[in-house]
Write a structure and sequence with these properties.
By secondary structure, the chain is α+β, with helices and mostly antiparallel strands. It has four domains: about 120 residues, Beta-Lactamase; about 120 residues, PAS domain (Beta-Lactamase), CATH 3.30.450; about 90 residues; about 170 residues, Histidine kinase-like ATPase, C-terminal domain (Heat Shock Protein 90). The strands form four sheets. It has a five-stranded mixed β-sheet with strand order 10-12-13-15-14. Strand 2 and strand 3 form a beta hairpin. Helix 12 crosses helix 16, helix 13 crosses helix 15 and helix 15 runs antiparallel to helix 16. The protein starts with a helix and ends with a strand.
Length: about 525
């Protein structure tokens, strides 16, 4: 039988993908094919007559592995082994070895046929694949922001990662083997929605949606779901589905908040537009009313002035015939008309400023002279209020300004000081600082809270109740507009119960670019 085996072996001599050789009952190599030479590196002359244990790792030889393999083959007729073997050059390779016993006609062992395959590349590939799968498994299991799990073809849960436990609230032991529809609201389960997802994913290759899902504690959350079929191989049988779920509750809440904020902004915009329209309507009304009042006021002023002149002449000709106290009442009426005329002019100024039609007629003027003229014009009011005024204006402090407008600003500031500081001193100071001129108006009245210091320069804004102090809240607004039209600035420093200091600073030669929008500047030599 061994001889016949030797003859049959000749047919396998040229096989190169397998090492096929024969050994005697003690393990001595009897034959050697080309595949054995290619895999192990020995020629037939080098190995025939040698014991096959030389192909084993040293530790395997020490442990008696070659003898055990032969003994198993004797007893069972065949043995298969996977282990490292050694080439001639000392390198090792991963081998699949099959040893088959050969018997004679009497059943006695005559030897063995040994077939060895080099599986190093396949083992390396399998090892890399296992490493890749392990890394993927660890990666998926470690992901906490996504629920990633596998389903079988019918929708039973096969795997469960940390993200799934965090998002859905279930531990792996609570869900494995159960149908994934357990995460759906009752109404979706009854309508067959989960099963339709599997069907669509299998038919189209993918299913995605956003919808409501349910956590273990019964809480509903908004989720993005992607379902992908997994096949054995391309075109092969369906293995199941990969399911990825993201919790979009916070994002959806943020989107809702943004929509709400956008709607609120739009509502505020509409309210602002309505307020602006109301302000425009008010300004137009004020402008029209002021213009309409000017004519009858002028006529009334002329008539009262005429009546006063007649009373004066009558008193001069025949004092006894003049009605008693008529002249005093006419004088009072003229004062009231003067205040009305001043109010109308203020309203017209506001209307012009709002419409961008503030015109400045600039010419050379002395700030010190303008200030003294304002103090002289207000002397009666200052005396009546009991305010002692100190003017410190040593130089001319000249510049190119609109004198009437600057007088208007100074009059507003001084009137403001005597109104809120009645009975107390007022200090007026003019300073020259290179290309600028400053005017400081200080009163010792009630003071201004810090939160009101910017607000008082607005239209119709006041820092005190109307019941305590009269006025429309236009003086400082007009003053600030005129100063800024000259390219200057006006500011206030104060505190409740402390002196209030208004500072107006003007450039001597305002640049056209410094003018407020819509204002016009005219210069006269």
């Amino acid at each position: 039988m061994l001889a016949l085996g030797t003859q049959a072996f000749e047919l396998l001599r040229e096989v190169k993908d397998y090492a096929i050789y024969m050994i005697d009952p003690e393990g001595t190599v009897l034959t050697w094919n080309d595949g054995a030479r290619a895999i192990k590196g020995y020629s037939a002359a080098e190995i025939v007559g040698q014991h096959f244990s030389r192909f084993f790792m040293p530790e395997d030889r020490t442990a008696g592995r070659p003898a055990r393999l032969l003994q198993t083959a004797r007893e069972q007729g065949r043995v298969e082994d996977y282990a490292f073997r050694v080439r001639k050059d000392g390198t090792r390779f991963w081998a699949n070895v099959v040893i088959t016993a050969i018997h004679d006609e009497a059943g006695a062992i005559r030897g063995f046929v040994k077939v060895t395959r080099d599986l190093t590349e396949r083992r390396t590939a399998e090892h890399l694949l296992r490493q890749s799968e392990e890394r993927l498994r660890l990666l998926i299991e470690g992901v906490k922001d996504y629920a990633i799990y596998m389903l079988d073809p019918k929708g039973a849960i096969l795997s469960w990662n940390a993200g799934a436990q965090r998002i859905k609230g279930y531990a792996a032991g609570e869900v494995l083997g159960r149908h994934f529809s357990m995460f759906y609201p009752e109404e979706l389960r009854y309508s067959g929605h989960p099963e339709r997802e599997l069907q669509i994913a299998q038919e189209t290759g993918r299913y995605e949606e956003e919808g409501v899902r349910v956590r273990k504690n019964g809480e509903r959350f908004w989720a993005n779901v992607v379902l992908t079929p997994v096949y054995e191989w391309d075109g092969g049988p369906l293995r199941g589905f990969a399911k990825v779920t993201r919790d979009l509750t916070e994002r959806r809440a943020a989107e809702e908040a943004m929509r709400s904020a956008s709607e609120q902004i739009q509502l505020e915009r509409l309210r602002t537009e309505e307020a602006q329209n109301a302000l425009r309507a008010r300004d137009e009304f004020i402008s029209v009313a002021a213009h309409e009042l000017r004519t009858p006021l002028a006529a009334l002023l002329l008539k009262i002035q005429g009546a006063r002149a007649m009373v004066v002449r009558q008193r001069e000709g025949d004092p006894a015939s003049a009605p008693p106290k008529v002249l005093d009442r006419l004088e009072s009426a003229l004062g009231q008309i003067g205040r009305l005329t001043d109010l109308v002019q203020r309203l017209l100024d506001v209307s012009g400023i709002v419409r961008g039609k503030l015109v400045l007629r600039c010419e050379e003027a002395s700030m010190s002279s303008l200030l003294r003229r304002v103090v002289d014009d207000l002397s009666d009011a200052l005396a009546k209020a009991g305010c002692e005024v100190t003017v410190n204006a040593p130089g001319a402090a000249s510049g190119c300004w609109d004198p009437s407008r600057i007088e208007q600003v100074l009059a507003n500031l001084v009137s403001n000081a005597l109104k809120y500081g009645a009975g107390r001193p007022i200090e007026l100071r003019v300073e020259e600082d290179g290309d600028d001129v400053r005017v400081l108006v200080t009163d010792h009245g009630i003071g201004i809270r810090s939160g009101d210091m910017d607000r008082i320069f607005g239209r119709f804004e006041r820092a005190v109740p109307l019941d305590n102090y009269s006025g429309l809240g236009l003086g400082l607004y007009i003053a600030k507009s005129i100063v800024e039209a000259h390219g200057g600035s006006i500011r206030v420093a104060s505190a409740p119960g402390q002196p209030t200091v208004f500072t107006m600073q003007l450039p001597r030669r305002p640049a056209p670019a410094a003018q407020v929008s819509g204002s016009a500047v005219e210069s006269s030599s």
